[in-house]
Amino acid sequence: MPWASNWDERVAGTACELCDEGRPEETKTGTRILASAVADTYLMRRALVRGYAVVVWRGRHVVEPTELSPSEAAQYGRDVLRVGHAIQRCFRPLKLNYLTMGNWTPHLHTHVTARYIDDPAPGDPLPAGRSELLPEDQWREDATALRALLTDSATT
């Protein structure tokens, strides 16, 4: 598949869907579980496994983490680690994966994915494009539990 025809505009931020959406509580794909000074984190409903979250940079438009100042990078990194820690505590996965690419959406964001003993690709990355809609009640309960852990981690 070729790069998007409007790639240059997307990289420049003039056609960036993540900038354009603002800081919503819910998106078409997830519900917010953490809003910090620099990022929002969404628990994704469409996923291969429970505990799949995406941390989205909410400062100025940047594509690469190398575009952040040292202070911004530290803040963003702390958010990513807070989310990973909450996912570990909530779901007790075998492993966590952290993925920052931006090949489809050129705006800084990091996928935090729980990996389990029975997941569909042990030892390998999860296959792209394959996901299931998690049951809404379970997804919302998971989001509530993660919010509580993330609130608790802000005070400890």
Automatic annotation (TrEMBL):
Pfam family, one: HIT
Keyword Hydrolase found: yes
Keyword Hydrolase: yes
Motif (Histidine triad motif): 107-111
Keyword terms, alphabetized: Hydrolase
InterPro entries cross-referenced by the UniProt entry: HIT-like, HIT-like_sf
Domain HIT stretches: 51-122
GO molecular function: hydrolase activity
Protein name as catalogued: Diadenosine tetraphosphate (Ap4A) HIT family hydrolase
